[in-house]
Amino acid sequence: MNFPSWLSILVVDVEGNGANPPDLVEVAALPVRDGRPDTSTAGAWLTRPKNPVTPFAARVHGLTNKRLEHEPGWEEIADTVHTLLGGSWICAHNAHVDYKVLSAHLPRWQPAGVLDTLRLAKATYPGLPKYGLDALIEHVRLDLTAAPAQRHRATFDAYATALLLIEMAGHYDTWDRLVAAAVPPGLPGAPQAEEEPTLW
Fold first, then answer.
1. What is the pLDDT of residues 157-187, one digit of tens each?
2. Phi and psi dihedrals of 90, rounded to 5?
3. Of 25, 105, 136, 165, which is most buried by a Cβ count within 10 Å?
4. Residues 36/137/156/15 CA torsion (nearest 10 deg)
5. Please, what is the average pLDDT of the chain?
6. b/e map of 77-92 (b: 16 or more CB within 10 Å)?
């Protein structure tokens, strides 16, 4: 695929406080430009949740209540996050989760479309025993030496997902075919089913 012909894509990842529905504690948005992650224009934010981080969530991503107590509340950074996301396409692993959480926190935000690397991986690499991010990192042998932070932090996971997207995009010769494989039904950007012609 001709990477320069891609629309503006932001690979996103969010981390939450462990509640259901979650309060955000970290958001990362990493542009993909010319076939590579553009860390120079990426956005990353820590935010203090309204409700405490659960012990389980803190063990996963390492962001404790003490670590976040002096970070801005969501209302202080929401406009900045919204501005960076704009109307771009977004991409995430298991994207309906990130899309749902971001939409709940940014009610006026609407992306052009949502690519899901989990869905794309199932189409690109059929028959794998697992399709979690760790399993795909190992399968594709991604070089993550330049990734920021560590696994389960939003910046690391967005970087890994961006590399995974770039690797898998090479299996598709057009944007439309990539979209057909990667956008879950019902999410923005999903191809519309062609209606059967009628006599009227």
1. 999 999 999 999 999 999 999 999 999 999 9
2. -120, 160
3. 25
4. 120
5. 94
6. bbeebeebbeebbbbb
Q: Is the pLDDT of residue 3 over 90?
A: no
pLDDT score of 8? 78
Q: What digits encode the pLDDT tens for the residues 39-98? A: 999 999 999 999 999 999 999 999 999 999 999 999 999 999 999 999 999 999 999 999
- Under 8 Å between Cβ of 30 and 162: yes
Q: Is 41 exposed, middle or buried (0-12, 13-18, 19+ CB in 10 A)?
A: exposed
Q: Is the pTM of this model over 0.85?
A: yes
Name the nearest CA neighbour of 151 among 62, 89, 19.
Answer: 62
CA 45 from chain centre, in angstroms, equals 14
Instruction: Give the per-residue pLDDT at 7.
Output: 74
Structural contact between residues 47 and 27, judged by C-beta atoms closer than 8 angstroms = yes
In percent, the amount of the chain with pLDDT more than 70 equals: 94
